[in-house]
UniProtKB/TrEMBL annotation:
Native organism taxonomy: Bacteria, Bacillati, Actinomycetota, Actinomycetes, Micrococcales
Protein name as it appears in the record: N(G),N(G)-dimethylarginine dimethylaminohydrolase
Keywords: Hydrolase
NCBIfam families with a match to the protein in the record: DiMthArgaseDdahStm
PANTHER family from the UniProt entry: DIMETHYLARGININASE, DIMETHYLARGININE DIMETHYLAMINOHYDROLASE
Amino acid sequence: MPRLLVRRPSPRLAEGELTHLERAQVDPDLALAQWDQYVDAFRARGWDVLEVDPADEHADGVFIEDAAIVFGDLAVIARSGAPSRRGETATARAAIEAAGIPAVAIEEPGTLDGGDVLKIGRTVYVGQTLRTNAAAIAQLQGLLAPRGWEVVAVPVTRRLHLKSSVTALPDGTVIGYPDAVDDPAAFPTFLAVPEEHGTAVVVLDERTVLMSSDAPETADLFRARGLEVLTTPITEFEKQEGCVTCLSVRLRD
Ligand code: CIR
């Protein structure tokens, strides 16, 4: 059974880092209700939900995807380019090791956020961003190449993370909102989506994706391709430059 690692939002969510967006009013109660709904969408599909210890002192701690990336039987613990976020990894690491997955950490001078790592088949695209640097990408390459993964660096300037710029459908088609993508030709396939918040999907299984409720035309586009599309409201996290991927780490069997 697939497992999902999540961390409930801090009451201080509104104080998190912002890079490309203006600060907007965030409702912490609504954020918690939306987080519950997000987690329930996985539960309803048979995912086992593992809660990482709350870290209320870390405003961005809910964006657990940034703290660790799982590659089959190996977890890589990130080291954010935002120093305010580095304290989030200890609890994430403990949860991953408790789940039976050995972990190794990115080391200085490397910086890496999990939001910059997009896996498609055995290819790992890594965004070079304000959060993720070449030193970390070289460390990833050293860890992953012997395990049969190909690491491909992708410059990202228009959004915070690679996965706020592009994600992929179950068949590997890369999707993105054109304004948010530096170079669609960096990927073997590219499908433009009509809405900003349609850029991010989480693959639940070969036929099903989960995405923000705030991209109805994109949801219809995916349905027309034969996918089942579940939507969930994440407005309070989108205001903080989060998206549907960053609220969890997926542990797939
Ligand atoms: C940050 O700037 O770090 C947070 N406010 C948002 C992180 C979103 N993470 C993600 O998309 N993977």
